[in-house]
Design goal:
The structure is a homodimer of 209-residue chains.
Chain A (H helix, E strand, L loop, with lengths): L6 H13 L2 E2 H12 L7 H13 L3 E3 L20 E4 L1 H12 L3 H4 L1 H9 L6 H29 L5 H30 L24
Antiparallel strand pairs in A: 1-3, 2-3
The first copy, chain A, binds a DNA duplex (28 and 28 nucleotides) through helix 1, helix 2 and helix 3.
DNA sequence: GTTAGCATGTAAGGAGTTACATGATTTT
DNA sequence: AAAATCATGTAACTCCTTACATGCTAAC
């Protein structure tokens, strides 16, 4: 009943439910629309996750409090179960959004964390973007070194695969460079002297364009 | 002991051992060099896989047949276990290389299959490339539709994520277009008799932008 | 009156990953 | 003698995925 797995789903669900309460089916559609090309979840992933989050008390079934008493919504279609964030859930969401370590910049987590940058503090955003850039640059170094070592015995298809792979990663690095520059430009974030962030309110309006 | 999981690893291991026998540690390095940016495996993945393939009789420990009898190689470092492909393993490898369905063009499998295109029949190569292109175009359609539906409630970060994601996929489609054109040019592949397409090869250049 | 879409779930398993444990050999 | 690298392995776990099972409601 307790014991939460679901690192990506947890943030996505809490983040979406923070905007507005929803039932599972709709949540899944918004989820996949949110994550776009990065990821797609089926019901078989979402519902067990909702069950867990419910068990942990991070979300709760919304009781519509009609005059006829607290019955599940039978007005629309089938009796839907509308979930909302609890106080614990909000706290948990804030913790997840404050994450700026590997969980937020590795392949798995980066997409979701980025998708919720609008709700993320400016200094955290910057740390995640920079963390991911470092990660990708490490990967570039590793692959380039490996290629140099084994260059002679790779056939043309393998070389082409590598070329395309490297180009993709380089392209993402350039994208991150632009985002980082844009984050810095939009003021409010002094390059962290030690860890100190200035209090600013305009955290979410800065998109690169 | 039997029962093979490991869809990606199996092909990669058999394909590499087809070139030359190797021990696990070296295999892992060549594996990661081969797959480049696409994937990286640790020993915890490779060794159990080798155990399975051994159990299935697809690979075998190479006996060096020294004059002192069949002992494990103690010449180099620690007693290495050098694996080689068996006859069954070669057959299995041919089956895997002949695969041209979803397993070969989905995200997971495509990289490995492509890496071994040098050992793959020309018509199979073409089918895999076209299959992947279709898959990506479906994905583009799906995401663009989803974006159109929920455009208004996405913030600028989410939009930026989608823009970058779409661009990445579009870029891969263009790459596939070039590869497919190049495969057709290099002769030897008559367009499959049943699936008839108009006599221009440039069917897929329709990317917006 | 039947398909298509809405809506919720479970059981079993996939394809690895992480952390740990061990020891030999070469380099510094 | 210490550190790095070579070399092999296991147990427990992860984070979903696939296939299945169910039923309601709107549209054709």
């Amino acid at each position: 009943m307790s014991g939460n797995r679901y690192r990506v789903l947890e943030l996505a669900v809490l983040g979406l439910l923070h905007e507005t309460p929803m039932h599972g089916y709709e949540l899944r559609k918004r989820l996949n629309a949110l994550l776009g090309t990065f990821r797609a979840f089926g019901y078989g992933s979402l519902y067990p996750c909702l069950k867990d989050l419910l068990g942990l008390g991070l979300i709760a079934e919304e009781q519509p409090e009609g005059p006829a008493g607290p019955a599940r919504q039978r007005s629309g279609r089938r009796s839907k179960i509308v979930y909302r964030l609890t106080a614990d859930g909000k706290e948990r969401l804030q913790d997840l959004l404050a994450e700026s370590g590997p969980a937020a910049w590795e392949d798995d987590g980066f997409g979701v964390h980025f998708a919720f940058f609008g709700q993320t503090r400016a200094d955290i955003r910057l740390r995640i973007l920079e963390g991911r850039r470092s990660r990708l640059e490490e990967r570039l170094d590793g692959v380039r070194a490996a290629m140099a070592r084994t260059r002679e015995r790779l056939d043309s298809y393998t070389l082409e695969l590598h070329r395309h792979g490297l180009e993709s990663v380089e392209r993402e690095v350039r994208w991150l460079n632009e985002l980082i520059a844009s984050e810095r430009e939009s003021g409010s974030v002094p390059p962290p002297p030690s860890a100190r962030h200035a209090e600013n309110g305009t955290s979410a309006d800065s998109h690169p364009g």
